[in-house]
Amino acid sequence: MFKIGDYVVHSGHGVCLIVDKIFDSNLHKDFYKLQTIHNNMSIKMPCDKANSLLRSILSKEDLAKIMNEAILLSDEYIKDNKERKNKFQTLIMSNDINDTILLLKSLYHLSDDKKKEKKTLGSFDTQFLQQAERKLFNEVAIAIGISSLEAKDYVYEHLKVTKVI
């Protein structure tokens, strides 16, 4: 179970803070009240669904291990737009940090290829990139105790990529 004050990663909303636990007498159910880190949006989630949609922020040690191993993950991407969009949707909704890293590496590689062709990422690729970066940068920032900007540099360094503009 999670506690008030815990930071968690929500599969669809990224990093959130558990701000309260409330009982809804009409529904006879306990709910967590979450606040997203990136835009301070409030989310009400049934406590009995929490284990399937939330996970704890990684420890500093676990995060360092995962980031050090991230270089081994493939950066290949699917060339077909429809297939790529479906794959990226699955990866972004996963609550596995390795899926988020895999998605980012694929998007960074795609972005590099587009730059070589003097093109830019398409709209859905850009949206996935923004979501995945926000999710990972916020978790890194909280796990290590650094700013989001420092987290961005940390991720870029560990993934050995150039900054995406």
Q: Could you estimate the helical fraction of the residues in percent?
A: 40-55%
Number of domains: 2
Structural class by helix and strand composition: alpha+beta
Q: What is the number of helical segments per DSSP (H or I, 4+ residues)?
A: 6
Low-confidence stretches: none
CATH topology of the largest domain: Methane Monooxygenase Hydroxylase, Chain G, domain 1
Q: Topology as H/E string?
A: EEEEHEHHHHH
Reading off the top of the CATH hierarchy, the class of the largest domain is best stated as Mainly Alpha
Percent strand: 15-25%
What is the CA-atom radius of gyration, in angstroms? 17 Å
CATH architecture of the largest domain: Up-down Bundle
Total DSSP E strands: 5
Looking at this structure, what is the CATH superfamily of the largest domain? CarD-like, C-terminal domain
